[in-house]
Amino acid sequence: MAFTLACWRHMALALTLASTALLTHAAYPDKPIKLVAPFPAGGTVDAVARTVAAQLAVVLNTPVVVENVPGAGGAVSTQRVVKSAPDGYTLLFTTPNHTINPALNDKLGFDTVRDLTTVSLVAQIPELLIVHAAQPYSDFNGFVKYASAHPGKLDYASAGNGTLPHITMALLLQKLNLQLTHIPYKGAAPALNDVLAGTVAVKFDTIATSAGHVRAGRIKPLAIASLKRSPLMPEVPTIDESGLPGYQGILWMGVLAPAGTPRDVVDTLHRGLRQVLTDPAIVKRFEADGVEVVGSSPAEFQRLIDTELKQWAEVVKRAHIKAD
Questions:
Q1: pLDDT by residue (tens digit) across 245-293?
Q2: Residue 20 covered by a domain
Q3: Among candidates 219, 236, 244, which has minimal Cα distance to 144?
Q4: Residue 176 belongs to some domain of the structure
């Protein structure tokens, strides 16, 4: 009888603990969420991260704090998230550096696919191919024709070796079989300044930072690196429609969680982000800055990562690109 009573007590305790665990898990989120970002504070991408975090906090009824952790092209912030508990309270807000880094460094200390779980692709900013106003061509095909006739004579600026503008330009040149000289800078601002000064001829930039200079006539937009025209510059054709089908150069932004994060937690985060990204006020605010809202499924985001990992590995190897 004593044994039977003890069994019942053990069963009652187990059921109580299980119920408590379920209630605790069902309460997610019940404390602040940290969104770790691999770039310094300030700038368009940081603004997107903070806008999303603020609105997600409202949707989930818990604080969502952006923590800027720059370093090693995003590897430092990714390492921090990978090593954190897979409980949904430490997330990564990242960009294409996430898929470029493995091509540049085989000793990152983590596996880009195995150690992280995709939540959602949040937004994207297509790159804009710009040239100094004095260049003797005004459209994409004119640029291609001129560069073909003057191999190695044109130069292009980027924010540094291995950055997205460098990698996407390398991909463009490989597809067109063009030879341009790369001039790396320590950041996008000084690179743009030298294009404005006419020191460098060509650059991949964004509409947000280029629009004012285009209106002032200091630079010319040749084409946008997406599959559809931008409503902010509808007169500028895409590279796709200009003779290079399928070409894209996209600064995307997305959220990932540590591998092993429970599926229902990932689903809660995904639903929350979808709610944020379908808010008309948020969409309008982003579009004014040239930011396109996405809000993909985890599977769609993972497919993008898988595609880019292969693509950038091939581009980096062929162009012999080395990180600074």
A1: 999 999 999 999 999 999 999 999 999 999 999 999 999 999 988 899 9
A2: no
A3: 244
A4: yes
